[in-house]
Each structure stands twice: as structure tokens, then as C-alpha cells.
Amino acid sequence: MSEQEIIAGLDIGSSMVRLAVGQRSGDANEAVHIIGLAQSPAEGINRGVISSIEDAVSAISACIEKAERMIGLPINSAWVGISGSHITSQESKGVVAVARSDGEITESDVERAVEAARTVATPPNYEILHVIPRSFTVDGQSGIKDPVGMNGVRVEVDTQIIQGLSSQIKNLTKAVYRTGIEIEDLVFSILATAEASVSSRQKDLGVVVINIGGSTTSLVVFEEGDVLHTAVLPVGSDHITSDIAIGLRISIDSAEKIKLEYGSAISAKASKRDEIDIGEMEGEESNLISRKYVAEIIEARVEEIFEKIDKELQKIDRSGKLPAGVVLTGGGSKLPELVDLAKKHLRLPATIVQGHNINSVLDKATDPAFTTAIGLVLWGNQLGGQQNRGGIGGAVGKIFNFKSASSQIKKIFKKIIP
Q1: Integer Cα distance of 313 and 321 in angstroms
Q2: pTM of the model
Q3: β-strand pairing of 16-23 with 6-12
Q4: Under 8 Å between Cβ of 56 and 44
Q5: Phi and psi (nearest 5°) for 366?
Q6: N vs C: which end of the chain shows fewer Cβ within 10 Å?
Q7: Nearest to 179 by CA among 66, 314, 336, 305
């Protein structure tokens, strides 16, 4: 196996940096084989945003070294996930005239239409990450998914534009380049997460993918195979830990341990008779508290997260109206009874992500915490197989990426690093 055959997906989270390494398959439809997974505690990253470049570089480097030792090959490049509450999305429309005299629509017409949609007025200091075509209109006929090969005079496209704060994009790319690896492209993390979480049938029916991370909760809504809405909420599983620490007056480490070992998202299913000795954890005299009280603290915060998610669904009139329901992923999704609480508050069927659409002998490959990193590998595999694409089919194939800040940073670091 050569270095050219591997694809790396780097998920830089607020609590953990995770890296997945996959072996490139010749066919984009074939399941990717995951050969390496590594994680290291995140430093210098707060709510998906770089707060200290030096600390972030150390954390990313430590994760890359672990993965390289595991697979026995150097990692030269990676698809990097970007998230954070600074990322916004908006709709835009592009219109162009068909170039050919016989009226046949070519791929260049589609790209010109998408480029026209991209000229939307972005907020100051923001940069476009993705332009996602949702549907096309040819000479007034709407609802067309792929107009290439059709005949017409005028092509319109409705797109979803995802953009992020330029300074944060540059800080992230700078931190990654300083570890010595190339960035294949920056990908909005929740879009990559969805690639490893849901099938094309679920996307057609209507589904919401929810990634509960350490400091943020991200979501993406699909309907008829298209991205309908994305959002990043500034609340995550670390807030649950903080609530337990404050409520029980214990250290953060003890609170995290209690959450993982004794936590439940539904207090009604916990018994008052079941008790936890928090004094033993803190190295103090015995201090018993009921598991029900811990569950009540957890339930209050999780209900708040689901209320915020439901508000996002209400914005697009999809609250309780997605047939394929809710798919939960991320480290925070492992909380017991979380699925039942999601069903109750979102009024939708709910499951925790399973399978990740990959082949792997690694135990961690089924861990919901690695979904984004694995999704980035799948993203890279699909785009790699479509470099000379004839058509724009497939969820990833339809997404147009535009590098600007990352390419500028790359040039600077090529001069600095020998």
C-alpha cells in the first residue's frame, strides 16, 4: 500500500482531535476500508474555534503521530473538518444563458450558473466554504436535479451557500499547515458527518443529522436528497458535565466520570434508591446522592438542546415532519436514554448512527465519536473518484468547493517550512 492510496480525515473538535485513515477504493460506490483511527485531547480549541495556535498545533501533531504509528505510513495530506457557531448558511439563485447554439446544456453552463449564485453579497470578513446546488430550472421548468444534456435557453439554480468567518478559517488552516500536512480541502463538519451517518434514501425522505459534540451541537436537514438547512448551536455535552459539577459541588473530572458511568437522559427511569458515593471519587468522606438527582440535572440540559434543535426545524417548517426522523451522532450521543428523549421532544423517530457505511476491523470504527472523521474520509474518497466527473450526481459530487484563504496560507507556509 502506497501513500497515494490513503485518505485522511481530520476532525478538530473542542474536546478531542480525531483522525481517521482510509484506504482509497477504485470505485466511489464501494465501501471504504478504514485502516487507522486515532484521537488526542484538544488544546487551544474552544467551541470549534482556534483560541491558541501553538496549543492546537501540538494537539493535532500528537493525533497525527498516533495515526502514523498505527498504519506504518506517513500522512501527507488530510480533508479537514471545520465547525463553530461562526458558520452560517443562506440561499442564493444564479441565472445564465445556455452557451451552445443548439441549446444543449453542458457542465460548463451548470458551473457558470453556480458561479453566478456565488456572487451573493457575503457579510464582511466572511468567506464561502461550499456552494450546494439544490435544484435547477430550465426555461421555467423547475425541480430539475441534473440539467446536463437537456435543451434550453436559460438555466437557473437554487443554491445553499455555507460561509465562515475568514479569520477563523485562516487560523484553522494555519494550525494544520504548521503540523506539516497539506489540506485537501476544508469541509463543513456536519456535511461530512452526514456522509457517514445516513443513506441516500433517508436523505430523499427527509432526515435531520444531529452531532452532539463537546461544546457545540451541529445539525443538517436533508429533504429530496438536498441540504435544506444547517446550524451550529453553542451548547454540547461539556455543558452537561459542568451542570453536574455545579449541582453536586464536585470537580469536573468526577462530574465527567459520573455522567459516563451513572448518567441517564430521562430522570423518570432512574431510581431514588440507587445511590452514588461522590465522596469516594473526590477522596473525601462518604457522601451519597441519588442517581435520580443526577438524571434530573442531565435531563434539564438535554431538553434545552432538543428545544434549540426544534426551533431550528420550526424555521424551515419541518418540526415533527421528517419521515426518516433523527440520526444522533457525536461523543454526546452515547448518553443512555438519549434516543427516547429525542423521540419525545422532537416528535420524530430517532436512532443512534450505526455502521458508518465503511469496512473496518477496528473496534472504534463503530464509535459515534468518530463519525465526522470517518465522514471526511468518505467525502475525500467520493470527490477523489469524481475529479474528472461527467455529471454532478451524488451528495458530495454536487457540492462545489472554492479554496481561497487556505490556498493563500499554503503559499505562505511553503515559503516558511523547508
Answers
A1: 9
A2: 0.90
A3: antiparallel
A4: yes
A5: -95, 0
A6: C
A7: 66
